[in-house]
Hints:
Blueprint: H1 8-23, H2 46-49, H3 52-63, H4 68-78, H5 87-99, E1 103-107, E2 116-120, H6 122-154
Antiparallel strand pairs: 1-2
Amino acid sequence: xxxxxxSKGDRSRQAAREAxxxxxxxxxxxxxxxxxxxxxxxFSGELRRREVLPLLVLHLIDQDPSYGNQLMExxxxxxxxxxxxxxNTMYPLLRRLEQDGLIExxxxxxxxxxxxxxxxxxxxxxxxxxxxxxxxPFLDSVARSIDEIxxxxxx
Length: 155
């Protein structure tokens, strides 16, 4: 009985398997690069253009007034270090949100300027609601893409 020729997809998968076998095992790092303090800032690319970080910052501030370093720690903690925010991204964003009237900051100790706690304004709540609707389709597509990668790689 003659076998039908393998499809292009079957050949691609077979070639990938052979490349993996040839390359041999690789040692995975113990923690994501961001958790080890060497990661790049994921909020500098598509996530920034899609307003994901402002949405997340407004959400966290709405939950509990926070200061910049605390926000960075909360984001790293909630994503188990997969996403980290560089201070050079966070602090300009906080300044912009404050200048736009979406958040207001108060120094913990005004005479010493220690930590600046931010809270949402009425305009900030309206912008947060708008971003929730605007960003959701993008986040859904990211989640679907990651699910597809997991299915493809792990079956």
